[in-house]
Amino acid sequence: MMIKLYYSPGACSLAPHIILEELGIAYEPVLVSLKDGENKKADYLKINPKARVPALNVDGKVLTENVAILTYLGGGYPERGLWPKETWKQAEALSLMAWLASSVQVAFAGNVRPERYANDAAAKENIKITCREILLGYYADIEKLLTGKTFAMGGQYTVCDPYLLVFYRWGYRVGLDMKTAYPHWTKHAMRVASH
């Protein structure tokens, strides 16, 4: 099996990158620099017309979007234990990842890239302020979620945990004091980083 992960440093592609390492399977990491606009070049657009990372190429078939990629990697290698066994727990994992992708990441993007949502300078500033408030609410929700748990799904380390690490790291990018404001999430991040 030939696997390629298209990633960019600092992007949400960190989550499947970590999972591929955890799985211990052979794969080729392919750098697509978002900073340099490589995601918008013709060669990459043939791989992922959405011009985003990550993209996962498995034997010539391409999968995009973290929720799908992490589900494939976790569920496709059940013997590695990175995906819940019970259907209900699987649904909870999908629910968490979908919320991270569709809500938390969108609020983060609005805070750091308001030009995605508006052209007008005043509107951009309003989007930035509003998205930061929303993001802070979501971060408080994540802190509550992780309170009293070893990992996001309880005691089992799953594909959800590296995905949460992405957002933890992004907190620093927007100037949050993650250690002080989110002590449970900080402990979780340290566990994931040392896993």
Give a structural overview.
This protein has 195 residues and is an alpha+beta fold. The chain has two domains: 3-80, 3-Layer(aba) Sandwich (Glutaredoxin); 87-194, Glutathione S-transferase Yfyf (Class Pi), Chain A, domain 2, CATH 1.20.1050.10. Helix content is 56%, strand content 9%. The chain contains eight helices and four strands, in the order βαβαββαααααα. The chain has helices spanning 14-23, 42-47, 66-76, 87-112, 121-146, 160-173, 178-181, 183-194; strands at residues 3-7, 28-31, 55-58, 61-64. The protein has a four-stranded mixed beta sheet, covered by helices on one side. A hairpin with a 2-residue loop joins strand 3 and strand 4 (61-64). Helix 4 runs parallel beside helix 6 (160-173). 31% of the residues are buried. The mean pLDDT is 97.
